[in-house]
Amino acid sequence: MNFFSRGKLLLSGEYLVLRGALSLAVPLKLGQTLKVTESPNKGFLSWESYEKERLWFSATFETPGMSVTETSDKIIADRLRQILVAVQQLVRGFFQTQSGKLVKIYSDFNLNWGLGSSSALISNIAAWAGANPYELHKLISNGSGYDVVCSREEGPIFFQRTGEYYKKQKVDFNPVFREKIFFIYLGRKQDSAASVEAFTAGIEEPEKESALISKLGYKMAEASELGEFEQAVKDHEKVMASILNKKPLMETRFRDFEGTVKSLGAWGGDFAMVTWKKSGSELLNYLNSKNIDLVFTFDQLIKTW
Description:
Mean pLDDT: 91
CATH topology of the largest domain: Ribosomal Protein S5, domain 2
Strand content: 25-35%
Order of helices and strands: EEEEEHEHHHEEEHHHEEHEH
Number of helices: 9
Structural class: alpha+beta
């Protein structure tokens, strides 16, 4: 049995997606594959996770209770066990049928990049068990769930959480100026769960700001020319900077940048989206001066309908 789920990026609505803001989410061409085969280790579920072809984690779980009998990393094993136990709440008796199985996970991307390794894993495990991925997400995470929903999509969507549920809408986000949009890794991976917890604990209900961010998400998706898109990005950064009481990247790390820069996900790390009108070589030279060497074009990274 093989299952594949995509990585993701949230282009608008970071943080405020938790408060009902409509947000622009894009699935990636990169993703994660889960393969299930038979194992001679009866009475146990064997697990191996690979980053590209490098084994980075392994564990063995006794079925059906899912206690960890051996592992290369106890913290990761405990987190994985939490997911597996939650599966059994949704699909009772599932792991009684999975005794003597070997699960192998293959990730197309570096797990430190923050492109959705956890959400793709949740999505794949749900597909394997025949469970609802969003319901599984709710049992184990305090996030919005946009990433788990996006991992199953074949193109960009608007995502909006409404109480315990969500709405999604297909959006044709494939701008004619996409060759001017790039995605860069800032090299400072953030803890998404910790960022969510800090935001929900420290911010009151920002209804006005959520409505404005929703409108800016529409503007970004529907922009017909680069200047319109860039203005929406600048306005979005300004709103979020005010809410988070943080300076945007254009005022800290990229003051001399000749384009626009937008934080993606938790501010301060992971990926950023930039626009650039000059040549690609000039962009690379600039980013190298900032010790940034991982750059994707829109077409290299984003899956469109």
